[in-house]
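Consider the tokenized backbone below.
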């Protein structure tokens, strides 16, 4: 796992942010999933099957995040597993990736049911014994949310059917489909569905392709970006590639002010680069006119002279 993936996992592993992301995607921003109702689970998905030669083949995958959640809704209580796959880049096989994780998890649940029945010596009927899964056993639903943390529009497939190309319409109903649940900055119409700083992170990523868009965003919502936690600012820098200097010891950062300082630094460096290029160009002109090196070094530095010679 790379540094960027590790940081993304750490950021979204926070129950408050994870719950906010789930509520935004699954319930339109309504507070249905509570942070305290989330419990982290093992992200390793493992399944063993028999190959054609009779030997056992093991499949093992590591999810980014997986949490068990108890949802209380309409006087009912539901247990669900919610996974998050964090993508800094577009993944053109995402439906297959998510489907594999779901399949491995369901397979693991069936395997655990079989182990439980064996331990309790509840053999059941012959079909139940052979299945390892009894008629009244149930599975815990698995929901996977693909969180895309890029500024470009997602142009990858959103379903398994899209990956097949042309499908015969008569056969299509017989081929099971699998759709991804995608959260992508460019597709969010209303950022007010977020109750935490996850909204600010995604909104900034969306605007980050254009300096003018960032300027417009910060000017329109100064109250949302003037008091951001340092972890979110670090995440913004990580996923946009924008280097915004902020003091490490500060827990709260004024991103509007930090952005202005970033812009001023860039403008200043740009002006300095422009002046240096002008001086290098002047030296090259003087050399072409036959001005001796000694006279050139009266006005310009040796480093500038050597740089001009390299470019000649």
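A designed sequence for it:
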């Amino acid at each position: 796992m790379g540094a960027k993936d590790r940081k993304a996992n750490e950021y979204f592993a926070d129950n408050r942010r994870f719950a906010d992301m789930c509520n935004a995607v699954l319930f339109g921003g309504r507070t249905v999933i509570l942070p305290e109702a989330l419990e982290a689970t093992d992200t390793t998905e493992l399944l063993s099957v028999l190959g054609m030669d009779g030997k056992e083949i093991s499949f093992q995958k590591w999810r980014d995040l997986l949490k068990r959640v108890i949802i209380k809704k309409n006087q009912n209580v539901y247990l669900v597993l919610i996974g998050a796959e964090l993508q800094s880049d577009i993944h053109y096989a995402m439906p297959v990736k998510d489907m594999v994780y779901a399949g491995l998890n369901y397979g693991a649940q069936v395997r655990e049911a079989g182990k439980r029945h064996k331990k309790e010596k509840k053999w059941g009927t012959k079909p139940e014994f052979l299945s390892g899964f009894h008629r009244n056993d149930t599975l815990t639903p698995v929901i996977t949310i693909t969180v895309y943390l890029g500024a470009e529009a997602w142009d990858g497939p959103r379903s398994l059917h899209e990956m097949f190309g042309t499908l015969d319409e008569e056969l299509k109903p017989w081929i099971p489909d699998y759709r991804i649940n995608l959260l992508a900055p460019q597709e969010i119409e209303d950022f007010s569905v977020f109750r935490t700083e996850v909204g600010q992170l995604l909104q900034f990523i969306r605007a980050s392709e254009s300096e003018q868009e960032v300027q417009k965003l910060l000017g329109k919502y100064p109250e949302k970006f003037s008091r951001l936690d340092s972890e979110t600012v670090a995440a913004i820098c990580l996923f946009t590639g924008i280097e915004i200097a902020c003091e490490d010891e500060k827990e709260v950062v004024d991103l509007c002010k930090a952005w202005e300082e970033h812009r001023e630094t860039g403008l200043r460096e740009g002006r300095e680069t422009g002046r240096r290029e002008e001086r290098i160009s002047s030296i090259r002109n003087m050399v072409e006119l036959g001005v001796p090196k000694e006279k050139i070094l009266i006005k310009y530095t040796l480093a500038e002279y050597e740089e001009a010679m390299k470019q000649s």
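The chain has a mean pLDDT of 85.
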